[in-house]
Design brief:
mainly beta, OB fold (Dihydrolipoamide Acetyltransferase, E2P), 5-stranded antiparallel sheet, 3-stranded antiparallel sheet, 1 helix, 10 strands, binds zinc ion
Length: about 150
């Protein structure tokens, strides 16, 4: 008897709406975005890193963060990717760009949209600035995007 089984690779898509409690740290992070247009991090008492977006625990030290620190709204574009292919689940029309941004005063980086309409002008290491949505709802998209500073 032959035990060989053909290995199958199946593809699918999952559309999974969900709701969750943001918790005390993320709730304050989102309230600060919504009500004050401030981007907040938290400092780890052990390694002193400022973690952005604010996290309850430092995942390097496994200790609770304890000090709120305002960061940005300017920062450095660490790297980016440009999305050219249109997919129904994309939040924007292609082409658009995602960036990894290290905000001034932060020791970690965050992912967000880049608002430069000509994506060919994006460069690693360029300075960017957060632009807030006019109508803010307590959501990461209260930061509409980051745009290059000329
Ligand atoms: Zn730490």
């Amino acid at each position: 008897m032959n035990d060989h089984v053909e290995r199958m690779v199946l593809q699918g898509k999952v559309d999974l709406p969900f709701t969750y409690s943001a918790g005390k740290t993320a709730s304050r992070f989102f309230v600060e975005l919504r009500d004050h247009q401030r981007i907040m991090g938290k400092r780890c008492p052990r390694c002193q890193r400022v973690i952005v977006p604010a996290q309850l625990f430092c995942k390097e030290c496994f200790v609770e963060t304890d000090e709120w620190v305002e960061v940005g709204p300017e920062g450095t574009l660490v790297t980016f990717t440009i999305v050219y292919r249109k997919e129904n689940h994309h939040p924007k029309e292609a082409p658009f760009a995602y960036g990894i941004i290290k905000l001034d005063g932060a020791d970690t980086s965050m992912v967000h949209f880049l608002g430069e309409t000509d994506v060919t002008k994006l460069e690693h290491g360029m300075k960017v600035r957060a632009f807030f949505s006019e109508e803010r709802k307590g959501h990461i998209l209260d930061i509409e995007c980051f745009r290059p500073i000329s």
